[in-house]
Automatic annotation (TrEMBL):
It is found in: Membrane. Coiled coil: none annotated. PANTHER family: CYTOCHROME P450 MONOOXYGENASE ALNH-RELATED, P450, PUTATIVE (EUROFUNG)-RELATED-RELATED. This is Cytochrome P450. GO terms for cellular component: membrane. It comes from Hericium alpestre. It comes from the Eukaryota. InterPro entries: Cyt_P450, Cyt_P450_CS, Cyt_P450_E_grp-I, Cyt_P450_sf, Cytochrome_P450_fung.
Length: 260
């Protein structure tokens, strides 16, 4: 439920979907406040499941690769320090964290299949007639298309290995591969790509800055094996796994306490 609060524009709002829709009323295009509210809210709610799945895969990736976790934390400590959380102004100064984010999106794709789309008019493609209204979905060699492209061994050598450095140039800067294919392609790319990217990056960076993610242990002190399998679907999620998420140290705990 999104409540409507009466307001009066003062000209300071940043350009956004909501301000664009509100502007259509002034232009004489009828839009009810309820419709504008629902459309703006849907942008966030529609991505809730996929962003949550992405965060779960991030935790799985980090608990399985402690050396990656430590290197990313060292970069954050060096650039950001220990007195605050990373913010978006730090993003360009944290290339390894960016590489970790991209590798998570590539290695464990949260939306491996994409969504079907219907054609609006009759079409022909490589000798096949596609009638108006037919639903189409891309498939590559009997694999989920987005996942298949992100695991192409020609583009990503050793594709099933978790290697953030594949997104770094020799000088340590990020390369031009932003794994956009994880969000689809063409005109039908996910309209929430920017929100999803920003949300996941800031969550991963904040998690790395403050917590250690380690395998859980049983009553005898033995590490509990982690199941890397996933539940397949339009949105893919990890199967249940246990891990321990604890403050990195006293400095991290103090920072968390100051934010509570």
């Amino acid at each position: 439920m999104v409540n409507i609060v009466p307001f009066e524009a003062d000209g300071t709002a940043q350009h956004s979907l909501a301000t664009e829709l509100l502007g259509t009323n002034e232009a004489g295009i009828a839009q009810t406040d309820e419709a504008i509210r629902d459309v703006a809210g849907a942008v966030y709610s529609a991505g809730g499941e996929t962003v949550t799945a992405g965060l779960h895969f991030a935790i799985l990736s980090l608990v399985l690769h402690p050396e990656v976790q430590k290197r990313a934390q060292a970069e954050i400590d060096r650039i950001v320090g220990r007195e605050r959380l990373p913010d978006f102004s730090d993003q360009s100064s944290l290339p390894y964290v960016g590489a970790v984010f991209r590798e998570i999106m590539r290695w464990k794709t949260a939306v491996p299949l994409g969504l079907p789309h219907a054609v609006t008019q009759d079409d022909e493609y490589e000798g096949y007639h596609i009638p108006r209204g037919a639903s189409l979905i891309s498939v590559f060699n009997d694999h989920f298309p987005n996942r298949a492209m992100l695991h192409d061994p020609e583009k990503y050598p050793d594709p099933h290995a978790f290697k953030p450095e594949r997104f770094l140039r020799e000088d340590g800067t990020l390369n031009n591969d932003d794994v956009q294919i994880a969000f689809g392609f063409g005109r039908r790319i996910c309209p929430g790509i920017h929100i999803a990217r920003s949300s996941l990056w800031i969550m991963i960076a904040s998690l790395l800055a403050t917590f250690r993610i380690e395998p859980a242990k049983d009553a005898a002190g033995r590490e509990i094996p982690i199941n890397e399998d996933r539940v397949e679907g339009i949105v893919s999620t990890p199967v249940g796994f246990e891990c321990s998420i604890v403050p990195r140290d006293a400095k991290a705990r103090a920072l968390l306490d100051s934010l509570a």
